[in-house]
């Protein structure tokens, strides 16, 4: 019994002398819970509403969010909003689709071949330096002032970030992967499918998130040119009549569409890159 008691006492002494385990140092942020990315926009809306309620913001200068929401519901009910939203969405997503496809094809051609790099990269860099709005007068002469002109300009605006980010991701693939593919005897097609395309996906998804926002921001200006439909047209007409509530409705629509588009791309990115472990994943 005495031997057993002495062993227990020694064990207790050792446990007391042993330093308590420390929590691992957090060097990088963890994954955010769902919905927390909306805290910033919601805080701005709350402060905006409070400033309107306390008279710090005049309704003639900027309508309150609650007023804009009521106006938007009224416009949906009377059928005056949805046709304009459909017209804007058709223009934006048509230009987005064409720009993403063209940017991806050009990036693959320039990133994987020397001929493509020589012929294409300089042209895209020149377009990158020229603002899309600066092309409007020339494109109007080429294509007129109809729908084709608007879709074409959105296409050119979207193409640049898709190309730049995807091309940079391709050129950033580790040469060790290339040497390993050569050692394994992969063909050119197998290398592109198994090494190049997976390696370019992170850059492509970054460009896609930029593109889905850029297609809408470009449309805002383009819908001021000879249009009778679209959210930009509604906002421009509301400006002439001093209807700040309708202008705020348009701003909210662009914000919501931008957030939803970004959320969809994030979901697709998380599934496509589920193999990757990174900060915040």
Number of strands: 0
Estimated helix fraction: over 70%
Q: Give the SSE order as H and E letters.
A: HHHHHHHHHHH
Distance between the termini: 55 Å
Give a quick set of tags describing it.
74% helix, mainly alpha, 281 residues, 11 helices
Structural overview:
It is a single chain. The protein is mostly helical. Helices cover 74% and strands 0% of the residues. It has helices at 2-17, 39-53, 65-77, 82-112, 114-129, 136-143, 147-171, 175-183, 188-222, 231-240, 244-272. α7 runs antiparallel to α9 (188-222). The longest helix is centred in the C-terminal third of the chain and has 35 residues, at 188-222. It starts with a helix and ends in a 9-residue tail after the last helix. The model has no long low-confidence stretch (mean pLDDT 83).
Summarize the structure.
The protein is an all-alpha fold. The protein is built from 11 helices and no strands.
Topology overview:
Layout: H1 2-17, H2 39-53, H3 65-77, H4 82-112, H5 114-129, H6 136-143, H7 147-171, H8 175-183, H9 188-222, H10 231-240, H11 244-272
